Amino acid sequence: MRLRRIRRAELPSDPVELARFLIGTFLVLEGDEGRVSGRIVETEAYLVGDAAAHSFNGPTKRNRSLFLEHGHAYVYFVYGNWYCMNVSAEAEGIGAGVLLRALEPIEGIELMRRRRRHAKPTLLASGPGCLATAMGIDRRLDGIDLCAPGKFWLGVTKDLGMRMPIGNSTRIGLTKEAHRKLRFYLRGSPSLSGARKLNA
DNA sequence: TGCACGATAATCT
DNA sequence: GATTATCGTGCAA
What we know:
Elements: E1 4-5, H1 15-22, E2 26-31, E3 34-46, E4 73-78, E5 82-88, E6 97-107, H2 109-116, H3 128-135, E7 152-156, E8 166-169, E9 183-186
Antiparallel strand pairs: 1-7, 2-3, 2-7, 3-6, 3-9, 4-5, 5-6, 8-9
The protein binds a DNA duplex (13 and 13 nucleotides) through residues 44, 46, 52-54, 57, 60-62, 76-82, 84, 86, 97, 99, 101, 127-130, 171-175, 193, 195-197.
């Protein structure tokens, strides 16, 4: 599969549009242990003025990457055990992001399997914490420009723009703003997280 | 104190 | 097989 780096001008600078756009694109990390990549199949948008968004209360040391120009990585540590990542989703200075929740492993499946132990191949990166573990994403990647030359980037194939069956549901694991339907997923993907009825 | 989580166990169909 | 309950873990507010 031939992947090329995405250009920032191709990325929507609106969280909902970006969340939809990223479905079917690829996340690539050329790490010390090898290259891993996967097709993004599940995302969630976190908006300006959204009480569930990490950026809601303004920039802090932790969340400042959310305020970078769209297309940068925001990596954070949660629940004492896992990392999760967002793609920043607005103009510089505006805090919003798209959480990457699941991807279908493409390259480096053996490496992902080692990191994740016993998971089934399709489920190696099913869930935001699993995704980061399988890919080998950690704090060192926070703030990286995913559109710039480097080892961590967003890729697309020739069929960028092909229509895909994208589903929409409520976001997972929230108490605030739980009713908003800001989760997007590739219908029929075997790698989705979340309850069955959310993936209809 | 409360999480943008995940694994295991318990409790269903 | 599928959904629901519980709990550990470290850090920011």
